[in-house]
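so my prof wants the structure for this chain in the tokens format not the other one, which i didnt know existed until like an hour ago. anyway here's the sequence
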Amino acid sequence: MRIKNLIIPLFCLVTIHVQAQDNWLTKKQITEDVEFLTKTLNEKSSYAYLNGFDFNKDFEIYLTSLKDSTRLKNFGLFITNTLAKIADRHSALNGIRGYSLNESLFLPFVYAPVNDKVVVLNYDQDENLKILNPRFPYLKKIDGLDIDKFLQKTRPEDIKASKETYFTLAVRDIRDIQKNYILLDKALPKEIELTLSDAVLQNDTVLVVPVKDKSERQRPWDEKFERDYLFIKDEDFNQPENIAGLFSLDDNIAYIKLPEMVSKDEAPLLFEKVNSFMKSIQNDSEALIIDVRANGGGTRDLLYEFAKYLIHPDSIHIVNVVKQRGPLPLPKDYKESLHSRFLYSFSELDDREQKKATEFLKNFEPIYELDEAKYSEYYFGLLNGEKLSTEGLYYNKPIYILANEKTFSAASVFVSAFKGIPNIKIVGVTTDGSSGNSDWVDLPNSKLFGKISTMVSFQKDGKVLDGYGTTPDIKIERDMNQVLWQSDTQLEKLRALIKEK
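here's what i got, hopefully its the right format
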């Protein structure tokens, strides 16, 4: 027994020592990881250097200032912050993984974005959201720091996101006070002073609150319609009970909710429902709403499924052009990856499509001119009505695509592709655009890993999706009732607008 009792503490000490070593990196290890990442970015990253940011300078300054060693989390934060400046949204939103800030302390209450302000919420006894202090609903300062300055520092990974996206994500993260104070490089006190203000931010009151441990934290704010589908997997959209509530026809306005851009292979039943519903509303509806708010993306399958009904049979539209970073000419696997996104080179188009592509390029002014020695020729995303359309089922009535700042990846491509198409209007707020054909990168010493994009994806107006998103034709923002889950104001306002027309 004595030997056994002696071995256990020794084993624990060794384990603790190994864990401690794992949480620290030597300067040599970091230097090797930075060199590996530099080489990877220079060889593979499609967005590196495009916006004028030179990550090499940040790496050089960091290594120069580094002492003999540093914590893994500090290195992880540095890499996260640096890569975010490249404006590669897939890299930023997926984040650099493999390190932890060991968060265990949180602010009480729920924080939500509304009209460029932060409203502080709580739950009533029936678990309904309510404004914490109706007289002073808005958060003005945290421990004396103006809320705008606070938010500017607490979501560095999204620093190049659209304004609307950054604000929403940063506001949701106010709860994570321990993480935020690490980012602010401030010691976290046991109590936090919240300055609450009135509707015009002129009259204030101060509330001092204790930080809470993990067991007492509240879930961050989400839209009600988002919360309903938050934990449903892609394959679950092949189940009738999860599909039924996505389709409706009310007051002659057809409505389709798309929580995810699922693939046809994973959810064939959803695609069957899309087709049957589109056929059923041909004569019974005055307009169609397709709702992709808070849709985090997936594949482009649904884009081309809807195009069968939304694109005139006699028309061809270039909706997206890309250039792929990689060995030239592109190997077979690169081409297959582009084809899986319905993207094709000029030589792969038919005569009519080539004519349309030639006309498009004459007026196309890309925001970035890409090095032909590093990037492929253009690959075209196009909607050819003759090939796509189902005879007699072109939907020639007004179509509205409702999007928001959490419409991401393939969902943002969906919005961008249909913008400017006859009969179609984009409604809501600017999307969190992204389309990068991402690849994984793993650092050898720290074991940090994350995604980097290898494809530059242009919208029809020449802007890239990443960092810009797609602006709406009709802007409709959420209001307080929507924040409190009392109504879906954006959808209701859109319905009213349709009825007026």
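also thought this was worth mentioning. The longest helix spans residues 2-22.
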